[in-house]
Write a structure and sequence with these properties.
Length: 122
């Protein structure tokens, strides 16, 4: 019976193959969101694919100054990818409904600054 010997050969050869796992690095993104012109902004948030972000819960952004229309969050992710995907929320409502997520490409360094305007495509 050749099946067991073939199975053993496949198992042994798989041990000799190099791993295809990308090394993970800490990547920080400084998100700056302009909400100018939006009425009654009470809460600004960020949702996304990579931890500590989630699609189920907002990460709060904070105003840059008193009475500011510019909000900020700093997020550090451990990843092997070159991009991440996010969407902003205002008062719990998602931006860019029925549109693709924002794709943020990590820069060559450890920190990337991403500037956006709510519900406006880059």
């Amino acid at each position: 019976m050749k099946t067991p010997s073939l199975l053993v050969a496949l198992c042994l050869s798989s041990l000799l193959l190099p791993a295809c796992v990308q090394p993970a690095h800490d990547k920080t993104v400084v998100y700056l969101l302009d909400v100018r012109g939006l009425p009654n902004v009470r809460q600004v948030g960020l949702r996304g694919r990579d931890k500590p972000l989630s699609w189920d819960q907002d990460l709060p952004l904070t105003p840059v100054g008193p009475d500011s229309t510019l909000y900020r969050a700093v997020v550090t992710t451990r990843t092997g990818y070159r991009i991440t995907e996010v969407k902003f929320t205002v008062n719990g409502d998602f931006e860019l409904k029925n549109a693709d997520n924002r794709r943020i490409e990590f820069g060559p360094g450890d920190t990337t600054v991403y500037r956006a305007r709510f519900d406006v495509r880059p």
